[in-house]
Amino acid sequence: MKRKDWQEGFKIIFPVMLGYIPLGLACGMLLYDSGFSIPAILLMSLIVFAGAAQFMAASMVVIGSTAPTIILMVFFLNIRHLLMSSSLSGFFKKSSIPFILLFSHTLADEAYAINYNQFKNHKWTDYQALATNVLAYLTWVVSTTVGGFIGSALTIDITIMNYVLIAMFIALLINQLVSKLFVVVGLVAGLLSVGLMELLHHNIALVIAAILASLFGYVVDKTGEEKKSKEALH
Q1: Per-residue CA distances from 78 to 30, 200, 232 (Å)
Q2: Which residue has the higher pLDDT, 231 or 48?
Q3: CA atoms of 35 and 224, how far apart (whole Å)
């Protein structure tokens, strides 16, 4: 990648990187308090790279959940990445398999939202998208590892970090409300989340709601495009 790709990626992902630092520190401290060693925290961030899943894994370890249960929950929580990756696949038709593997591994919710918006509304390349992913990825890995070191030396109340996570996702949501469809999908996701939480009484309801809302948005968008194509032909 060229220096310009890194510069463009940094300019667009910088706010997310700032948000990752306190969240990563909190996650690292929480993982350490849950019994993870510092090398294990580093390895987990390198391999899993999923803030919500890592927070959840730490909580499940504390309550004594088994390893298969934690792995299964992390899988279901991160299954949304299949939808995110597939929705971006059209922009990487000329990219190599190793490139796509690296891009997919370093893709997270925030980088996805930014890259999708850049591809749709701006002049954006696959290398700039990868630079955006990698910068966010490295910020998270370093932050969680440093958090592990802090957790080993200090006892800090990290409850406030729950609100930081929520605030960051709200900011990302607002930035995505660029059309009526996005607003409708957001409302559908919210209603499904509340309804499924009442029905299931488990956080997996949020994952199911996100997947169903994404599928709803995809179907509506695809139907609209097909309708426009037919009208253009006539």
Answers
A1: 20, 19, 39
A2: 48
A3: 50
Cα–Cα dist 208/13, whole Å:
28
Q: Are 18 and 136 in contact (CB under 8 A)?
A: no
Give how far the C-alpha of residue 44 lies from the chain's centroid of Cα atoms, to the nearest Å. Answer: 16
Structure tokens at 128: 């700039």
* 189, two tokens: 């996701």
Q: Which two tokens stand for residue 191?
A: 């209603």
Whether the pLDDT of residue 161 is over 70: the answer is no
| pTM for this predicted structure | 0.71
Average pLDDT over the chain, rounded to an integer: 84
34 in Cβ contact with 61 (< 8 Å): yes
Determine the straight-line distance between the first and last CA of the chain, rounded to whole angstroms: 45
**What is the percent of the chain with per-residue pLDDT over 70, rounded to a whole number?**
89
Residue 201: pLDDT band (50, 70, 90) is: confident
DSSP string covering the chain, please? Answer: --HHHHHHHHHHHHHHHHHHHHHHHHHHHHHHHTT--HHHHHHHHHHT--HHHHHHHHHHHHTT--HHHHHHHHHHHHTHHHHHHHHHGGGGTTS-HHHHHHHHHT--HHHHHHHHHHHHHS---HHHHHHHHHHHHHHHHHHHHHHHHHHHH-----TTHHHHHHHHHHHHHHHH--SHHHHHHHHHHHHHHHHHHHHH-STHHHHHHHHHHHHHHHHHHHHHHHHHHHHHH-
